[in-house]
């Protein structure tokens, strides 16, 4: 179990966050992301309360101490269960516990949690209050701006107001409606129109609350623009597929002195973690799948992805495979540079 470091020192602000993404933001990706940005606020995948209360807590809750600041996202609706999980999150050392009120998948709806809870604000309020009573870390809510054909701003305004009265002070606003029937989770991230002005208006209507905006944000420059209206931004798939954008966050968003970073350097810094995991029995493929985007947009990116996703090469592989991929990429870049110079 992790030491509860979250209460010992104030963590960086949530000016820039990586969204919780199922099957993606596991502890291996988060450790990699932390190597690229020391300040970015990290979120786990959504973990349902039943998995924590009745399943393998080590599997679902384990994280590396370097991941701080880190939030646990919960899926659930039963206040007593949410309270118990919030207390467990605090004991494990998480800096925040977040309630998912935004996922539109039918599988999640069948468990009576996710975006469908926006239609039950009293239940969400009860859950938030129970969580706050059970722990001292931040309790936050991630939600949509509307459900199905409910597009009136007053709907999300009243939802936020009621949950705020229950004690929640931090809201992550995915600025799209959730369509509960007829659209896949992927389509729900793309088809409902983005309405950033709803999130901006929430900040104006509730200036004492911390409002973080999410949805369609792909660059640091876009993030800076949003920060003139709200308190924080949350970036999703772009931070996964093109993780090198995280290297610009600490300086541009948090005002830290920019540090020299190279992609090889990032991997070399991650090497002790990778080798420790391999020694404990973790297959390299569990880690390698999260670093495939490291060279996105760079010469040799395709070869990097091909080598580190090849099932034959990954079988029983160790750090040597990553070293070989790095060398192959750099040798190819040198050869290309030499040809360019000769021409």
TrEMBL record:
Catalyzes the synthesis of 5,6-dihydrouridine (D), a modified base found in the D-loop of most tRNAs, via the reduction of the C5-C6 double bond in target uridines. Specifically modifies U20 and U20a in tRNAs. The record marks 100, 186, 189, 302, 305 as: Interacts with tRNA. This is tRNA-dihydrouridine(20/20a) synthase. The keyword Oxidoreductase applies. The active site is at residue 103. One of its GO terms (molecular function) is tRNA binding. It catalyses: 5,6-dihydrouridine(20a) in tRNA + NADP(+) = uridine(20a) in tRNA + NADPH + H(+); 5,6-dihydrouridine(20a) in tRNA + NAD(+) = uridine(20a) in tRNA + NADH + H(+); 5,6-dihydrouridine(20) in tRNA + NAD(+) = uridine(20) in tRNA + NADH + H(+); 5,6-dihydrouridine(20) in tRNA + NADP(+) = uridine(20) in tRNA + NADPH + H(+). Residues 18-326 form the DUS-like FMN-binding domain. Keywords: Flavoprotein, FMN, NADP, Nucleotide-binding, Oxidoreductase, RNA-binding, tRNA processing, tRNA-binding. Its cofactor is FMN. PROSITE patterns: UPF0034. It holds the Pfam family Dus.
